[in-house]
Design goal:
With 468 residues, the protein is an alpha+beta fold. The model is unreliable at 1-12, 70-81 and 252-264 (pLDDT under 50). The chain folds into 3 domains: 9-72, no CATH class; 86-163, Immunoglobulin-like (Sandwich), CATH 2.60.40; 172-255 and 262-466, Metallo-dependent phosphatases (Purple Acid Phosphatase, chain A, domain 2). The protein has helices spanning 11-38, 45-72, 192-200, 221-235, 267-272, 319-329, 364-373, 421-424, and strands spanning 2-5, 86-91, 100-117, 124-139, 146-151, 160-163, 172-177, 207-210, 240-242, 294-298, 301-306, 336-341, 346-350, 356-360, 378-381, 387-393, 400-406, 429-433, 438-443, 447-453, 459-466.
C-alpha cells in the first residue's frame, strides 16, 4: 500500500513570471526613453529613474495581479478562507479495484494524517503535508475488499469504511442524481435532494454519480458546502463522480453579490474533486478554461465522463473527441459502454407545425455520430430538470442506445403528471415526467435494469437494456 499527497501549488509560476514581466517592462521603458531622447526631448536622470525604478515595478505587480486572478489562480490558494471543516468524500483516480482517494478540507492548515487499514483494529497511520485541502491517494489495495479509515486532526472523528471495486464481470449497483443545485433560488428548506438522500441510503449500491450542477453557484464555496454536507452520509463510503455542469464552473446568475470574491471558471470544482482528467499538457498549466473529462473501468463497464461545457470540444479531432474515440475503440468487446454528460446531445422539440421531433444539439452534432459508430449502450445526462427516456437506433450500426435525461435531483420538491407516448408520438420515445427523482441501476453481464425512483423509493419509471 502506498500513499501520495496530491499537491496543487502554483507558486513556481509567480517566481517565473515576476522577472519576465519586470524585464519586459524595463526594456520597453528604456526603448521609450531612448526614442524620446532621439527626438530631442529633455529628460532628467530623476525622470528616467522614476519611470524605470518606480512605475515599472508597480506595473509589474498590476499585471501579475491580473494574470493571477484570470489565468493562474485556477484553484484557490493555500491561504483561501474556509468557513467550514468539510468531508470526507471518496472518489477514484485510477484503478477502482486497487486504489482510492480520500478527500476533506479544513478551516485552518492542519497536518494530513489518517488511520487506514483492512479492519478497525489493523489501521496504520499515514502522514502528509500541512494544508487545508487534503487529497490522499492510496493504492496497492485488494479488489472487493472492505477498508477502514479515520481522519486525525479533524472534528469528525468517526471511523468510516468503503469497498474496493469487485473483480471483472461481477454484478453491481449504482445510484445517480442530476442537478442537485442546493435548491437554487428556493433555498434548502424545500430542497428535493435532501429527501432523495434519505431514499438513496435505503438501497444497496457501490457507486454514486452526479450528472452535473451539483452546486448551484460553482464559484461560491457556500454552495459546495451545502452539497457536501447533504451528500456526506453517501460519500463517506461510496465513491462520488460528477460530470461537470455549467453551474459547477460558475454562473452569471448570482443570488449573493458577496460570492463574487470567490474564484470562478471551475476553480472550486477542481479544488474539491481531484479526478484523473485527460487534459492536454498546456491545460494543466495556467488556463482557467480547463477541460474536465475522464473515465474509469468498473467490473464489466467502461464509464466516460464527458465535458459538455464548450461545443467546440465535440468537434472532430478535438482533444476530447479523439479521447472519446480512443476510449470506445479500446473498450473490451463484452463490456458495457456508458457515457455520462451534463448537456444532452439530442433534444425533443416541436417544429413550426407543432409536431414533436428529435433535434441534435450543438454538442450532439459531432458527438452523436461518434456514439453511434462505436456502440455506446447508455447515455445519461442532466441539465434539464426532468426525467426523460428515449431509445435511438444508430444509423451506422443499427444498434439501439438508450438516452436518459435525469435532472430531477434538486430545486424544489415536485411531482407532476407524466407525458404519455400518445401525446408525443415519436419513434423511440418511452417516458417523460417533471418530478424529483434519482436513478438506481443494477448492472450484470447481460442486462442493465434502470429504475427512476421518487424520494420515497416508489417507482417513477423502469427500463431494461439487454446485451446484444
Amino acid at each position: 500500500m502506498t500513499l501520495k499527497i496530491l499537491n496543487r501549488s502554483l507558486w513556481h509560476y509567480i517566481i517565473l513570471l515576476i522577472p519576465i514581466i519586470f524585464t519586459a517592462l524595463f526594456t520597453i521603458s528604456l526603448l521609450f526613453n531612448g526614442i524620446l531622447l532621439l527626438v530631442g526631448a529633455e529628460l532628467s536622470i530623476m525622470t528616467i529613474l522614476y519611470v524605470d525604478l518606480i512605475l515599472v515595478p508597480i506595473a509589474t505587480l498590476v499585471i501579475l495581479n491580473f494574470l493571477w486572478k484570470r489565468f493562474i489562480n485556477v484553484t484557490p490558494s493555500a491561504s483561501f478562507a474556509h468557513e467550514w471543516n468539510e468531508g470526507p468524500w471518496l472518489h477514484y483516480k485510477n484503478d477502482p479495484m486497487h486504489s482510492i482517494v480520500i478527500n476533506w478540507f479544513t478551516r485552518e492548515k492542519t497536518k494530513t494524517e489518517i488511520l487506514f487499514g483492512p479492519s478497525k483494529n489493523e489501521m496504520n497511520e499515514i502522514k502528509g503535508e500541512l494544508c487545508k485541502i487534503h487529497h490522499v491517494y492510496i493504492d496497492k489495495l485488494e479488489p472487493n475488499t472492505k477498508y477502514f479509515y479515520k481522519i486525525l486532526n479533524f472534528p469528525d472523528s468517526n471511523t468510516y469504511s468503503f469497498m474496493t471495486a469487485p473483480l471483472a464481470d461481477s454484478p453491481f449497483n449504482l445510484v445517480l442524481v442530476g442537478d442537485t443545485q442546493n435548491g437554487g433560488g428556493f433555498g434548502t428548506e424545500n430542497w428535493g435532494y435532501k429527501y432523495l438522500v434519505e431514499g438513496i441510503l435505503q438501497n444497496d449500491f457501490n457507486l454514486f454519480m452526479n450528472m452535473g450542477d451539483a452546486s448551484d453557484q460553482g464559484n461560491d464555496i457556500k454552495s459546495w458546502h451545502q452539497y457536501f454536507k447533504t451528500s456526506k452520509p453517501i460519500t463517506v463510503s461510496h465513491p462520488m463522480h460528477i460530470a461537470v455542469g455549467n453551474h459547477d464552473t460558475g454562473t452569471n446568475y448570482l443570488h449573493d453579490d458577496s460570492i463574487k470574491k470567490y474564484p470562478d471558471e471551475g476553480a472550486n470544482f477542481d479544488y474539491f474533486l481531484d479526478y484523473a482528467y485527460e487534459r492536454p499538457y498546456d491545460e494543466n498549466q495556467i488556463t482557467p478554461f480547463k477541460s474536465r473529462y475522464f473515465s474509469f473501468d468498473y467490473s464489466n463497464c467502461r464509464f466516460l465522463f464527458i465535458d459538455t461545457q464548450n461545443s467546440k470540444m465535440a468537434e472532430p479531432n478535438n482533444q476530447q473527441w479523439n479521447w472519446i474515440k480512443q476510449k470506445l475503440l479500446s473498450c473490451p468487446e463484452n463490456n458495457w459502454k456508458i457515457a455520462f454528460m451534463h448537456r444532452t446531445p439530442i433534444e425533443r422539440r416541436k417544429d413550426e407545425n407543432d409536431n414533436w421531433q428529435y433535434e441534435k444539439t450543438r454538442f450532439g452534432k459531432y458527438i452523436l455520430p461518434l456514439l453511434d459508430e462505436y456502440g455506446v449502450d447508455l447515455v445519461i445526462c442532466g441539465h434539464a430538470h426532468y426525467y426523460q427516456n428515449i431509445e435511438r437506433i444508430s444509423p451506422i450500426t443499427k444498434k439501439k442506445t438508450t438516452y436518459i435525461i435525469s435532472g430531477g435531483g434538486g430545486n424544489e420538491m415536485r411531482k407532476n403528471k407524466p407525458v404519455s407516448k400518445s401525446e408525443v408520438n415519436l419513434d423511440g420515445f418511452k417516458y417523460f415526467e417533471n418530478s424529483t427523482h434519482y436513478l438506481y441501476i443494477e448492472i450484470d453481464d447481460n442486462s442493465l435494469k434502470i429504475r427512476a425512483l421518487y424520494p420515497d423509493n416508489s417507482l417513477l419509471h423502469e427500463d431494461y437494456i439487454l446485451k446484444t
